[in-house]
Amino acid sequence: MKKKGVVVFALLLVFAAIIVGNYMISSNFEYPLPNLGQMITGQSLNGAISLFVSGGTRDLNITSPINDTYNFAIGATYEIILNASSNFNPDDWAYSLFDLRHNVSLNDTVSFSPDTTINATRWSNLLTVSAKQTGGEWTNESVVFYVEVPNSAPLIGTIDEEIFVCENQKIGAPNAGYEFDTYDADEDTLGIQLNDSHDLFYILSPINTVEYTNFTSRIISATLSKDSAGGVDAGFKSYLTRVTADDDFNFSCCVDTADINITVIEMNNAPNWVGSGLGSRTLYLEGDDSEFNYQFLISDLEDGTSSSGNFTFNISFVGEELFSINETYGIVNFTPTINHVNRTFSITVCANDTGIANPHVNISDACGVAEDGSIKSICDDFTLTVTDDNRAPEISSYLPAESNFSIGGTTSTTFSVSVRDPDANIPDIDWYVDGVLKEHNELLSSDDYAYSLGCGRSGEVNVTVVVSDGLLNASNSWIIDYSSVACPVGGGGGGGGGGGGGGGGTIGAYCSEEWVCEGWGVCQNAKRSFDARSLSLEDHFSVQEICSQNKYDERFCGFQLTSCKDLNLCNNNTVPRVTKPSEMQVCYFTEDPSCEDGITNCHGKGCELLVDCGGPCEPCATCSDGKKNQGESGIDCGGPCPYACAEEQPLRTSMFAILGLLAVSLIAIAFIIVKGFNIVRYKFRKS
Questions:
Q1: Confidence (pTM)
Q2: Cα-Cα-Cα-Cα dihedral of 538, 544, 550, 553, to 10°?
Q3: Which distant-in-sequence residues (6+ apart) come within 8 Å of 496 by Cβ?
């Protein structure tokens, strides 16, 4: 029994030793030891004494940092020891740090004691150290040092994986668009691209820069058509595109990518009357125009024309119902009688289309609450007058009273008329400028129209108003002599008019181009193209010059073409406001380019981002792809990524737990053995 107690006691001692030892290790326990060399030999300690003669020159010496380059890892804190000495005994020390790259003061007059740590900034730092004695003047010393950090990969910020845009709309109108941010810790000018083989969507980048490292880009498009939405009754069409950010560091580093699915949602376009509507009609009892046989003509993007039979027509009257309408094709037939003479009938004809067969589930959210892809209608209000002697309508009054006058080109003039019809009809009012119809009005007894020629233009203009009941008409004209008015800087020529219930004209502004370009084509050999006369002498010389600068010899000197267009359709062929981008660039030519040739090139209707990746090839490694690649220390951290990996936790805590568990297990085993031994011995004695 005593032996068993001794064993257990020994095990407890071992367990206690393990606990104490582990505690000393985890606590970095230290015990100061004497300097045995000095104790045994009796050597003395060396020291230094600084002497300063009152009235002499006061000097400071910055011993750290020095005029040198200090290297840090990506994501590290730029901590540098600040140490300085002097030939006098300062009571006060201070320093200031200035960012030379950005011309910004990081801090000003910070008190410190020598042999302290400061936080520098990346690139060039100007450090000024100052010291003084109480009541004395400051003595200053400065040093410039450089903080070097390896290049890190750019990052694309938060970006939606799905973008919805509606037919007849465009991303980026007006002056808006889908915006996203990119980040580059190295403050590189990033190349932002959108890989879209359909040439529907483009990137404007950058449109804003924040604190040197953040860039805001914008996805835009031209107006998207029915075909862009997949065609009639398709409902929608999706386009998988890829946004890339490239810092152009070298051929193998560094990029970031993000995939976006852009869905163009089909909308149901309302039907339109062919022409400007029926307006006013007059019927006679005898002879010509004594019958009303008419088909209401419709044009609809989805359902075609009236003859297709895809529409449903209905008719209504104010008062007496004169006739019916063919509900499928919109045809009416009516012959007036003596009972209809000298009467005017107000009639409304409406037509419904069929809607779209497969509306997208998000159509109302993306295109507006009123848009759900269902049936849309169009109506036409007109009058039908039956008479035995038609009389022309009249212009009862008009302004300006002068029919000929002169004004400046930017002055807007309002023309107005009041009309009547002796047959109690309501005539149409049409406005023309130099013989071109500008505005059509129905069911109005008066109307006005405003017009100005615009700046930078001059000449004589004819404005005419025509009042018609469908058969006869009356008119009045004005001749205006416009003198030229200089356009303001940034303004533009052009002019126009408007009206209807007092509407006014506007002075036009210059149209500014918004250029977008398709992806670059396949790289072509410059010499072969020149020999084949598909490359001009001027372009060939220009390409050769750039190839020479890039050290491409004649075998590898190539060029690529693209096509750029103006989304705003300004048509400023003489003097564009925004210069058109170059549609040619130099490239490294190779025969049969591929994803395995070790060269960054274009093929397969796309261009590689880095060597043999991106575009038509497999995606390039990035700091956001969820993989450990491109020399990263962990998944998307360390290596070229702008974020350092989290430090691994030390194993001391887990080791302590393991050792403790082992000790408890040993005690339990020892207890079981002793207990078993006692049981066996007891049975042996009993037997």
A1: 0.61
A2: 170
A3: 451, 452, 454, 505, 506, 508
